[in-house]
Amino acid sequence: MDEVQVVLAHSERATLRVGDVFLKVDGDQGRIDREVEAIGLAPVPTPRVLWQQPSVLAISAVPGTVLATLGEPSVASPAAWAAAGAAVRKLHDAPVPPWPSRGGQAVDKLAADLDAECERLVAGGILPADLVTRNRQVAEAALRPWAPVFTHGDLHVAHVFVAGDELTGIIDWSEAGSGDGLRDLATLTLAHPDRLGDVVEGYGADVDVDVIHAWWSVRSLLATRWLIEHDFDPFVPGAEVDVLRARM
Predict the structure, then answer these.
(1) Where does the signal sequence lie (predicted)?
(2) Where residue 125 sits, what CATH number does that domain have?
(3) Which of 140, 175, 176, 185 could bond to 38 as cystine, CB 3.0-4.6 Å?
């Protein structure tokens, strides 16, 4: 009998694995519906949707292994990272979904949310003021108009699977929608900045690296307190606080 593995669990959603089947339990039915639609639209390898019931989605496992692990050097080849970049470019070139990604809000709202979160981080003693101030300055480069593309929305390395030099699948499309393509590239390389060159090479387009650096700061500032409140640790090696410190 296959064991039930808890992959992810917090107050918003949980993901369980039983053999080669993943069960995603989510109180937001709209998020499940969007994930199913995004999987159907994405022009890259994705899990197969097995069935869907209210608040539960069953999907297949994808072959291969994760591109990298948080806090550890990536053992994947430069070609595998480039293949991930090429897949992201293919996604970004696809028709844009009619709904925004969770991180695809308007620039003014993003700036306001970021300023409010910076105040909370300092007032709550979570991060020192100089660290927050410096990263808020870096983040400014991301706060510019962008042409919306089809984005994954949460493209960290644990959601990208490879076998050798080939990409075999991208999972967890719950945040997919229209948004800034450079945010996807930033999320993919957040904990492995040394692989940014490989990803950009595979992406095959002019990329403003300063904007990617800015998105590293934006994502880390916005995520730190949420992670703590949901029993994750943004202070572990390679996680969000390390990303913020690197900007100093």
Answers:
(1) none
(2) 3.90.1200.10
(3) 176
